[in-house]
């Protein structure tokens, strides 16, 4: 397995001259940063829309509120008689 520290130091030596060419007062995300942000925003919007559509399709049986209390009363009455 190759030594990763050697390749990391080699990469840094190639990147350091590129970093010195940039003006430290004028560094901005640029067009690429905007495009990445816009794509991520569109992806989140699409996922939210899809989630809402799928949640609307979910159908599960719900017991009415009275059913639970009636069952408890019936069980209590059965215990009193027995």
What is this structure, in a nutshell?
The chain is mostly helical. The protein has helices spanning 4-21, 30-57, 65-81. The longest helix has 28 residues, at 30-57.
Give an overview in words.
The chain has three helices and no strands. The longest helix has 28 residues, at 30-57. With 82 residues, it is mainly α. Helices cover 77% and strands 0% of the residues.
Question: What's the SSE blueprint?
Answer:
Elements: H1 4-21, H2 30-57, H3 65-81
Keywords: Membrane, Transmembrane, Transmembrane helix
Region (Disordered): 59-82
Transmembrane segments: 29-48
Keywords summarizing the entry:
82 residues, 77% helix, transmembrane helix, 3 helices, mainly alpha, transmembrane, membrane
């Amino acid at each position: 397995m190759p030594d990763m520290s050697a390749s990391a130091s080699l990469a840094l030596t190639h990147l350091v001259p590129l970093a010195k060419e940039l003006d430290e007062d004028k560094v901005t995300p640029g067009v690429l940063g905007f495009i990445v942000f816009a794509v991520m925003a569109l992806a989140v919007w699409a996922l939210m829309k899809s989630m809402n559509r799928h949640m609307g399709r979910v159908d599960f049986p719900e017991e009415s509120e009275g059913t639970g209390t009636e069952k408890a009363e019936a069980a209590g009455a059965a215990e009193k008689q027995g």
